[in-house]
Specification:
Number of strands: 17
Number of helices: 4
Shape: globular
CATH class of the largest domain: Mainly Beta
CATH superfamily of the largest domain: Immunoglobulins
Radius of gyration: 21 Å
CATH architecture of the largest domain: Sandwich
Oligomer: single chain
Structural class: alpha+beta
Largest sheet: 7 strands, antiparallel
Number of domains: 2
Length: about 270
Amino acid sequence: MTSGSQRLAGILLAASLCLPGAAVAQNNSQPWGIALSTGAVTTEDGVCRFEFGLDNHLTRDITALEVVLVARDQLGPVERTRLRLGPIAAGDHYAQEISLRPANGDCDTIQAIEVVLQSCEIGGNNRFEGCLALMRTQPGEGRPLVINRTPMPMPAEGPGDAAAPRSDEAAPTLVPMLGVTIASITESLAEKFSVSPGVEGVLVIAADPNRAAATRLMPGDVILEIDQDVVRAAEDVAQSIHRAIAANQSSLLVLTLRDGQEDFIVVPLGQ
C-alpha cells in the first residue's frame, strides 16, 4: 500500500470511529469527506473578495459547521472572519462570498487562507473530531487553503457575535521576521511564565537562538507596544512589522514587560 493510500485509510478509520453511520467513499478515485476550496480573489477599494466552497461528500447531513478563516501573508495573520454554515445536505455544494480587509490594503500579499474549525454537528450530534479528520482541501482558483488540525476556538468577532469564552489553550504564532513565537496570555501561560493578572499584550513563548532578536526578546517577555502602537494580539504584531517594512525600517522599538519591569528595547528585523 502506498503512503498516500495509508494516509487515506487512516483518515477514513478515524472518521468511522468518530462519525458512526456517516459513511465516506472507500475508493481513492471518488470524492470523499468534507472538501473545501476557494475561488479567485478580486480586489475593490482595499477589500479582498473570494468564494469559499464546501462539498459534503458524507452520506449524512452536516447540521451545523462553524469555522474561522484567517488570511495569512509571509509575516503571519492579516485578517480573519467567522462563518456559521448549515444545514448542508449529504452530496450538496455550499458557496459563500467572503470579504476581507487587510490592514495594509493589499490583497496580493495574501499567500494562504487558514481554516480553523470551531464546531461541527453531523445529524444533530456533536462530531468535532470526526469533522476535523474528514476536512480536506481540493483544487480551486484562489489562494491555497491550510487546515489547522489543532482544535482551537478563536475569539468571536463582529457586532452580531456573542463574546466567546477565552480558551486556556493558546494558539502559538510564529513571527518569522523576529524569530520568536508568541501567544495570547492565558491562565496557564501566565502561571508558567509568572505574568501578573491583568497584564495585556502578547507573550513570547519561544525564541530562535540563531536570530539576533533572541538576544533582546526572551521567553516570558510580554510585548506591550511596538513603535508606540499598543499590542493586544498577534495581528497587531504583524501590522506593526508591515508598517516598519513599508517605511524601510531595519528595527522595531518594542515596549516589553520582563520580571514586572517595563523597558524599551530595539529589536532587529529579519536578522
